[in-house]
Amino acid sequence: MPEEKRTMLADRREEEAAEAHNSTQHYEVLRQLGDSCTSLGKFDEARRYYEKAASLAPDEPDPYVGLGVIALQENLLDDAEIAFRVACRLDKNCSKAYAGLAMIAQQRSDYQQAFELYLRCLELDGDNLTALLGLFQTSCQMGTFEKIIHYLQTYLNMHPGDSSVMFSLAALYMKDERLDDARKLLADLLTLDPNHSEAANLLEELDRTLYQNENKRERAG
Amino acid sequence: MAEKNEHKCSPLVSVIISTFNRPRYLACALASVLRQGYTNLQPIVVNDGGCDVADVVNSFSDKRVVFINRKENRGKAASLNEALEKADGKYVAYLDDDDLFYQNHVETLVGALQEHPDCAAAYSDLYKVYCKTAPDGSRTALSKVVKVSRDFDRFVMLYFNNVLHVSFLHERGLIEKTGPYNENLSVLIDWDITRRLVFFCDFFHTPRITGEFYQPADDTERISFKQRRDKQAYTKNALTIRTTRPPKPWSKIKDLSIILLAERFDSRAGATLGLIWRYTFYPYKLYLPMPGADINRLNTDMPNIVTVGVDRSASQIERIAAVLGQCQSEYVSVVPAGFPVGEMWLEDSLYALINNTVENEAFELEGSTDRLRAVVLKTEHLRYAIDTFPGLPLREAIKAAKITLRRIRPDEIPFQLDTLLKKAQNAEKADDWLGAAGIYEYIAENYHNQLWMKSLAAAALFKAGRDDKAAEICHTVNRQRPTVDTLLLEAKLKRRRGDFHSAVELLEKAELILNPGFDCGRCEPTLTNQNSQ
Description:
Chain A is mainly alpha-helical and 221 residues long. Chain A has helices at residues 3-6, 8-19, 25-39, 43-56, 62-73, 77-90, 95-107, 111-124, 129-142, 146-158, 163-175, 179-192, 197-220. In chain B, strands 1, 2, 3, 4, 5, 6, 7, 8 and 9 form a 9-stranded mixed β-sheet that branches. Chain B has helices at residues 2-9, 23-34, 54-58, 76-86, 105-115, 154-159, 174-178, 189-197, 223-229, 231-242, 267-279, 292-297, 316-324, 347-354, 379-388, 394-400, 416-429, 433-446, 450-463, 467-480, 484-496, 500-514, and strands at 13-19, 41-48, 66-70, 91-96, 100-101, 119-133, 139-145, 168-171, 202-216, 256-261, 284-290, 305-309, 331-336, 361-364, 375-378, 404-406.
């Protein structure tokens, strides 16, 4: 008699115990409805679904993140901030809520605050593209690039071929005088996406700079 | 006249609702019966000594309803028996007072039986609804999940219950064969009757969802919950059910005799007897060939024991022969005292024997050794061997009778589906989602239960990142029978592809199932069979 069958009844009891926790399905449907409607720009419907989701699962932060995103889209920064703060209160590790708060700070031109919040978000979720690009923008706005290069490299290791991040990182390499790294990345990007005109322009600019540098070196030599 | 003709092809169905102190939900349950698309119904409401529900029942002003308003609380089994005495329907269906039928319930099950006249009982699938209950009693669904969707398997039904009573409909006449509900049981009342029914008929499983039953997330004070928590009582009830033998003749089960051989009835034999009682789930009678003095000393509550008087000096063969002179079963197992008895100890080999197409084969039970050897075979074969070769030991007599004695092969054991399911679950636990999906697909191809297995395969493929395959399977399942889980899964796959319009469409269907827009306190007739095929 195989051992597995001997435990069949015990498994059923285990299964029944697990069933007791099966309480998130309706919440999940409503949250997904909210997210999908948001993606379609149907903000009123999305808001209604998020509110229902929040009433079913009052401890879950995601519906508040969704409500914050809608308020942000509608440029209601105060409402968005309240929603993201509720999400943070429900889950102090809610990376999306920090990204939302960072976007609000950025829109209010508080770049230092935005920078710190994007960093907090990326500490919790290095995979958050919104935070990554937000960090890139605020870095440009503030003129600081050191930290962002590390995050972009980490992201690219996880998502090789992400053209928006490849382009941003190449631009940062250029600003950081790492011209060979920048050239290689742009060449890779253009292999993946030959129609990427911004990358082509940047590569042209880079080659011009490299040519000029070469000439300078030759003249100096 | 037209109505009479309609009723000729739509036989009367009695629907029994036993209720105890849940007037709010009873209204909803009864409403779900009265709004069935199938109208030739006899709803029978039995108040099992709970609070007065006459107002609830009378408020429907429906002359079809039979109301038994008993003041004394005698338990659910007694209520069902009382209702069965009043029932006139060709068929009987059951509904708990806090559960619901969809509009297609009775029609689906009666239709299934009419299409499959070889079956006398049918069952469908139900949503298990996890819900939260407000102080006023209103319920909000947290999830609706099809937990059980298993095709009929007689052996499985003998082992445990996989047919929910609310999903079940059977010919009323069968109760005369099975006998009434056992009023001494506190739990598993429904399994007791469905288990007895498999002695007499086949069940047909239709995988349509035709109703829902409720599991309040926070209600640990429910009577059924408390009773199930009492493990000792639960085990006692399960043993009672497993050893219940309805009156013969049985048309669908062949009987088994177990002959326990012991030199004397000592503690070793007693222990084996106890283990046989505990673990054997196939219907049997246990024969004890022993001297009269031992019989007088035998003190056990174990049912289905038959003592056969023999001389103390009688050999093993003589003892077996004495039993064969009395037993009428088709199969027989000879087991020495001290033989290792555990889960499936006998049923593995018995199942192989029942399904064996080779005529002259017998099986040696797993765990047999040179010192302790147990066998199971057709009674006629054993009788022939013993009668023809009375001077030989059992094993040699069987061989001399040209009956091949062998062990079972792995592909011959019962519960293959469960073994594979267990493997798939283990693969899931090890994050081997692709492996799990492969097993689910294999089961779907080879062991029926297609919708159930395909749904599991799609979920596993989704986890494995095989979106295309997951989407293909999920779409097929949803076209055939959408559930909240499969709609949600397909919606997630659509979202991953950026197809938000389709995702919303699927999610709105799921939301409609979860929240169909009726107030449970007093149902409005808006609950539809969203899942009918």
